[in-house]
Amino acid sequence: MNLLFLILISCLLISSIAFILILILVQQQKIIRKIILYLVSISAGTFLGGAFLHLLPESSEKIENSLLFGIILVSIIFYFFLEKLIHWRHCHTRHCKEHSFGYINLIGDSIHNFIDGIIIASAFFIEPKIGLITALAIAMHEIPQEVGDFGVLIHAGFTKKKALILNTLVALTTALGGITGYFIGSQTENMVGYLIPFAAGGFIYISMSDLIPEIQKQSTLKKNILTFGLFLFGVLIMWLTTFFKI
Questions:
Q1: Rounded CA gap, 163 and 122, in Å?
Q2: What is the mean pLDDT of residues 156-169?
């Protein structure tokens, strides 16, 4: 039960952070827009660092390399297929006026958050430290993502109130995924070992496909240096956590 409590707290904290930042966005849109790119930079680093410094080393001790790399490949293909299937990628134009696009985005984000919850639960089954590190990496991604999703809903024609309510409900699907992952892990302990490299593949795909391309769009040398430095900072965070035992 203590493990379930840790999983739920981690998932709910991610949802709470997203909710608070969206509330700030409603009041201070200019400030949030200025820092989103920097959050994305740190997020990209924590995702890659979490995958290569924590999840994959842990998986390599439990699964043969041939199977391990196969699961990673399947994970990357799955994320790519999911993104294509439901138009998961956020809108980067100013002409997202279709309400249908907003709802599709909500569906995609719900699936994504649910998977995140399962990933967090799976990581906690391996070791509490791995679970907390995974939750941190996901939180660093959820911050800019949820803020971005709120912007998509506004562009799709939703009122600020409706967008806030729907975005909050979608954010809570992370906790639902965490509960599901807990009971899956409780019943089938061996399955957790296969979910970890699957999570790593997702981390790698999200970082390389969605996050890094965003921080590469800077036109000034100063911003390029700053975003790259924050990217390295994200990796450094993950490296430093390898020295801590929980």
A1: 31
A2: 82
